[in-house]
Specification:
Layout: E1 4-6, E2 9-11, E3 45-47, E4 55-57, H1 62-73, E5 93-96, E6 99-103, H2 114-117, E7 133-134, E8 137-138, H3 143-150, H4 165-173, H5 177-180, E9 182-183, E10 196-197, H6 203-207
Antiparallel strand pairs: 1-2, 3-4, 5-6, 7-8, 9-10
Amino acid sequence: MTNFSFGGVMIPEGTKRLYVTAELVASNGDPRIQPTGFPDIGPVFYPDPSGEHGQICLIESEASMANRLEEVCVADKYTGTLQPELDGLPYITVMKGQRFMTASTLDGHRFASEYIMKAKFRDNEKGKDGKGVENGFKKDDMLVDYVKHELDGTGDNVPAANVPRIFRLAMELDPLALIHGFQISLKNVLTFVGLRSPRALSPAERAC
Protein backbone atom coordinates (compact mmCIF):
# COMPACT_ATOMS: atom_id res chain seq x y z
CA MET A 1 0.00 0.00 0.00
CA THR A 2 1.52 3.34 -1.06
CA ASN A 3 1.00 6.72 0.60
CA PHE A 4 -2.29 8.38 -0.23
CA SER A 5 -4.44 11.20 1.10
CA PHE A 6 -7.97 10.61 2.32
CA GLY A 7 -10.20 13.39 3.70
CA GLY A 8 -7.20 15.61 4.26
CA VAL A 9 -5.34 12.89 6.18
CA MET A 10 -2.15 11.31 4.86
CA ILE A 11 -2.23 7.53 5.15
CA PRO A 12 1.33 6.20 5.48
CA GLU A 13 2.64 3.34 3.39
CA GLY A 14 2.25 -0.05 5.04
CA THR A 15 -1.01 0.76 6.82
CA LYS A 16 -3.06 -2.44 6.99
CA ARG A 17 -6.20 -1.17 8.67
CA LEU A 18 -7.91 2.16 8.72
CA TYR A 19 -10.70 2.93 11.18
CA VAL A 20 -12.83 5.94 10.32
CA THR A 21 -15.46 7.48 12.59
CA ALA A 22 -17.83 9.63 10.56
CA GLU A 23 -21.30 11.07 10.76
CA LEU A 24 -23.23 9.65 7.83
CA VAL A 25 -25.89 11.60 5.98
CA ALA A 26 -28.67 9.96 3.97
CA SER A 27 -28.31 10.69 0.26
CA ASN A 28 -32.02 11.53 0.00
CA GLY A 29 -31.79 14.13 2.79
CA ASP A 30 -34.04 12.18 5.17
CA PRO A 31 -32.20 11.43 8.44
CA ARG A 32 -34.54 8.57 9.31
CA ILE A 33 -32.85 5.47 7.93
CA GLN A 34 -32.73 1.82 8.89
CA PRO A 35 -29.87 -0.29 7.46
CA THR A 36 -30.75 -3.75 6.28
CA GLY A 37 -29.92 -6.41 8.81
CA PHE A 38 -29.42 -10.16 8.56
CA PRO A 39 -28.38 -12.42 11.46
CA ASP A 40 -25.52 -14.02 9.54
CA ILE A 41 -24.02 -11.08 7.62
CA GLY A 42 -25.32 -7.92 9.32
CA PRO A 43 -25.94 -4.80 7.20
CA VAL A 44 -25.48 -5.19 3.44
CA PHE A 45 -22.54 -3.26 2.00
CA TYR A 46 -21.39 -3.38 -1.62
CA PRO A 47 -19.00 -1.34 -3.79
CA ASP A 48 -20.52 1.62 -5.58
CA PRO A 49 -20.70 0.55 -9.27
CA SER A 50 -19.73 4.08 -10.35
CA GLY A 51 -16.60 3.91 -8.25
CA GLU A 52 -17.34 7.38 -6.83
CA HIS A 53 -18.76 6.68 -3.36
CA GLY A 54 -16.84 3.74 -1.96
CA GLN A 55 -19.13 1.35 -0.10
CA ILE A 56 -22.91 1.62 -0.36
CA CYS A 57 -25.19 0.39 2.43
CA LEU A 58 -28.65 -0.88 1.58
CA ILE A 59 -31.39 0.54 3.77
CA GLU A 60 -34.86 -0.76 4.52
CA SER A 61 -37.77 0.71 2.60
CA GLU A 62 -40.87 1.88 4.44
CA ALA A 63 -42.70 -1.11 2.98
CA SER A 64 -40.11 -3.50 4.39
CA MET A 65 -40.20 -1.88 7.84
CA ALA A 66 -43.99 -2.01 7.86
CA ASN A 67 -43.84 -5.69 7.00
CA ARG A 68 -41.42 -6.33 9.85
CA LEU A 69 -43.73 -4.60 12.31
CA GLU A 70 -46.71 -6.54 11.03
CA GLU A 71 -44.82 -9.81 11.41
CA VAL A 72 -44.45 -9.38 15.16
CA CYS A 73 -48.19 -8.66 15.46
CA VAL A 74 -49.24 -11.91 13.78
CA ALA A 75 -49.14 -15.21 15.67
CA ASP A 76 -49.72 -17.43 12.63
CA LYS A 77 -48.54 -16.20 9.23
CA TYR A 78 -50.75 -18.75 7.46
CA THR A 79 -54.06 -17.74 9.06
CA GLY A 80 -53.30 -14.14 10.08
CA THR A 81 -54.34 -14.66 13.70
CA LEU A 82 -52.97 -12.02 16.04
CA GLN A 83 -50.66 -12.30 19.03
CA PRO A 84 -52.43 -12.69 22.43
CA GLU A 85 -51.40 -9.13 23.35
CA LEU A 86 -53.60 -7.88 20.49
CA ASP A 87 -56.57 -10.06 21.38
CA GLY A 88 -59.79 -8.19 20.67
CA LEU A 89 -58.36 -6.06 17.85
CA PRO A 90 -60.72 -6.43 14.88
CA TYR A 91 -59.74 -7.99 11.56
CA ILE A 92 -61.58 -9.86 8.82
CA THR A 93 -61.45 -13.57 8.10
CA VAL A 94 -62.83 -14.96 4.84
CA MET A 95 -64.21 -18.49 4.95
CA LYS A 96 -65.63 -20.80 2.30
CA GLY A 97 -67.88 -22.99 4.36
CA GLN A 98 -65.56 -24.23 7.10
CA ARG A 99 -62.44 -23.70 4.98
CA PHE A 100 -60.18 -20.73 5.71
CA MET A 101 -59.42 -18.67 2.59
CA THR A 102 -57.65 -15.48 3.69
CA ALA A 103 -57.65 -12.68 6.26
CA SER A 104 -57.27 -8.92 6.16
CA THR A 105 -54.02 -9.31 8.11
CA LEU A 106 -52.54 -11.22 5.16
CA ASP A 107 -54.03 -9.95 1.90
CA GLY A 108 -52.24 -7.43 -0.31
CA HIS A 109 -54.35 -4.36 0.43
CA ARG A 110 -55.56 -5.78 3.73
CA PHE A 111 -59.31 -5.25 4.21
CA ALA A 112 -59.35 -3.21 0.97
CA SER A 113 -58.24 -6.11 -1.25
CA GLU A 114 -60.73 -6.97 -3.98
CA TYR A 115 -61.08 -10.55 -2.74
CA ILE A 116 -62.09 -9.40 0.75
CA MET A 117 -64.20 -6.49 -0.47
CA LYS A 118 -66.27 -8.92 -2.54
CA ALA A 119 -66.64 -11.38 0.32
CA LYS A 120 -70.18 -11.75 1.64
CA PHE A 121 -71.45 -11.41 5.17
CA ARG A 122 -71.92 -14.69 6.95
CA ASP A 123 -75.27 -15.76 8.38
CA ASN A 124 -74.51 -15.19 12.08
CA GLU A 125 -77.92 -14.21 13.29
CA LYS A 126 -81.52 -14.06 12.10
CA GLY A 127 -83.63 -10.97 11.60
CA LYS A 128 -87.41 -10.77 11.80
CA ASP A 129 -87.64 -11.79 8.16
CA GLY A 130 -85.66 -14.94 8.90
CA LYS A 131 -82.72 -13.79 6.80
CA GLY A 132 -79.21 -13.53 8.15
CA VAL A 133 -78.24 -10.06 9.30
CA GLU A 134 -74.84 -8.76 10.38
CA ASN A 135 -73.81 -5.12 10.92
CA GLY A 136 -77.16 -4.05 9.51
CA PHE A 137 -76.65 -5.98 6.27
CA LYS A 138 -78.29 -9.10 4.99
CA LYS A 139 -76.55 -12.34 4.24
CA ASP A 140 -74.95 -12.32 0.78
CA ASP A 141 -74.37 -8.54 0.85
CA MET A 142 -70.70 -7.85 0.10
CA LEU A 143 -68.31 -5.95 2.34
CA VAL A 144 -67.96 -3.30 -0.38
CA ASP A 145 -71.70 -2.64 -0.05
CA TYR A 146 -71.18 -1.89 3.64
CA VAL A 147 -68.25 0.42 2.82
CA LYS A 148 -70.28 2.31 0.21
CA HIS A 149 -73.13 2.66 2.69
CA GLU A 150 -70.80 4.07 5.37
CA LEU A 151 -69.33 6.54 2.85
CA ASP A 152 -72.75 7.48 1.43
CA GLY A 153 -71.52 6.28 -1.95
CA THR A 154 -73.65 6.00 -5.07
CA GLY A 155 -72.77 3.95 -8.13
CA ASP A 156 -69.02 3.45 -8.08
CA ASN A 157 -68.22 6.80 -6.48
CA VAL A 158 -68.45 8.63 -3.14
CA PRO A 159 -68.64 12.33 -2.21
CA ALA A 160 -65.13 13.75 -1.77
CA ALA A 161 -66.11 15.24 1.60
CA ASN A 162 -66.75 11.75 2.95
CA VAL A 163 -63.31 10.35 2.07
CA PRO A 164 -61.89 10.89 5.61
CA ARG A 165 -64.42 8.34 6.86
CA ILE A 166 -62.16 5.59 5.52
CA PHE A 167 -60.00 5.99 8.62
CA ARG A 168 -62.95 5.27 10.89
CA LEU A 169 -63.73 2.27 8.70
CA ALA A 170 -60.16 1.06 8.96
CA MET A 171 -60.31 1.25 12.75
CA GLU A 172 -63.57 -0.70 12.68
CA LEU A 173 -62.53 -3.38 10.21
CA ASP A 174 -58.78 -3.83 10.73
CA PRO A 175 -56.64 -1.12 12.41
CA LEU A 176 -53.43 -2.92 11.39
CA ALA A 177 -54.26 -1.97 7.79
CA LEU A 178 -53.09 1.54 8.70
CA ILE A 179 -49.60 0.19 9.31
CA HIS A 180 -49.48 -1.45 5.89
CA GLY A 181 -51.46 1.13 3.94
CA PHE A 182 -54.35 0.34 1.62
CA GLN A 183 -56.38 1.50 -1.36
CA ILE A 184 -60.02 0.67 -2.01
CA SER A 185 -60.52 0.25 -5.75
CA LEU A 186 -62.91 -2.20 -7.38
CA LYS A 187 -63.54 -1.79 -11.10
CA ASN A 188 -67.12 -0.75 -11.88
CA VAL A 189 -68.01 -1.09 -8.19
CA LEU A 190 -66.04 1.49 -6.21
CA THR A 191 -63.24 3.27 -8.07
CA PHE A 192 -62.86 6.66 -6.37
CA VAL A 193 -59.06 7.08 -6.26
CA GLY A 194 -59.01 9.04 -3.00
CA LEU A 195 -60.06 6.05 -0.91
CA ARG A 196 -56.58 5.20 0.24
CA SER A 197 -54.18 5.59 3.11
CA PRO A 198 -50.39 5.56 2.95
CA ARG A 199 -48.51 3.78 5.72
CA ALA A 200 -49.37 5.61 8.90
CA LEU A 201 -45.99 5.16 10.61
CA SER A 202 -42.64 6.58 9.56
CA PRO A 203 -39.38 4.62 9.89
CA ALA A 204 -38.41 6.78 12.88
CA GLU A 205 -41.66 6.02 14.67
CA ARG A 206 -41.25 2.31 13.98
CA ALA A 207 -37.76 2.41 15.47
CA CYS A 208 -38.95 3.91 18.77
